[in-house]
Write a sequence for this structure.
């Protein structure tokens, strides 16, 4: 596990994390639902970042109870991750996740071989510190080190046969459920050196200009 620590909620870390979302190279970025309750919501966020859809159980989807609870949703996420060849996952705003969700992420990693990067836009939660002391991990601080961590390895091959953007959801989301779909990648630059792009070229989180060697 890698923990990227950014101070003062610096948006630059979020931009780099989303630029690292490259499903065709086996790397996805998950943005957890704000103020979500139990770990079921985090499993849904992970499933949706994989380009799949599974509606959250509520008054409209009570029939989903027959498919199990939190454990079943994490099994579904693990199955899709293994089927699609996704083995690197970045989770944003991990400093807001409570200890049980960190436990689920570690269990997911152990069962699937997924390498997690957790972005803490603030101090690492105190309740989590004893847990991460028991596992192999490294802490990355500073925008330059974070950019180097997310750099796509040279020569990495695209996954074959997994056109995730063409997938048709088995359970299509209703029209009034805007958070159920992956947002389209904007064509314009967010800021210089960090951008999304439709072109097939590899997106590379760039080291900030202040850290680059002079020409």
């Amino acid at each position: 596990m890698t923990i990227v620590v950014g101070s003062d909620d610096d948006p630059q870390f979020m931009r780099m994390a989303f630029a690292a979302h490259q499903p065709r190279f086996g790397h996805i970025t998950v943005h957890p639902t704000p103020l979500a309750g139990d770990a079921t919501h985090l499993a849904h966020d992970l499933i949706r970042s994989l380009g799949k859809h599974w509606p959250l159980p509520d008054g409209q989807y009570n029939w989903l109870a027959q498919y199990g609870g939190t454990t079943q949703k994490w099994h579904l996420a693990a199955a899709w991750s293994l089927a699609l060849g996704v083995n690197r996952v970045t989770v944003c705003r991990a400093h807001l996740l409570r200890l049980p969700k960190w436990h689920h992420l570690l269990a997911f990693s152990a069962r699937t071989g997924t390498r997690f990067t957790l972005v803490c836009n603030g101090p690492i939660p105190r309740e989590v510190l004893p847990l991460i002391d028991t596992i192999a991990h490294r802490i990355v601080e500073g925008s330059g080190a974070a950019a180097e961590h997310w750099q796509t390895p040279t020569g990495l091959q695209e996954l074959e046969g997994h056109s995730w953007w063409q997938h048709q959801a088995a359970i299509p989301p209703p029209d009034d459920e805007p958070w159920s779909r992956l947002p389209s990648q904007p064509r314009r630059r967010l800021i210089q050196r960090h951008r999304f792009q439709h072109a097939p070229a590899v997106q590379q989180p760039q080291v900030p200009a202040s850290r680059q060697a002079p020409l």
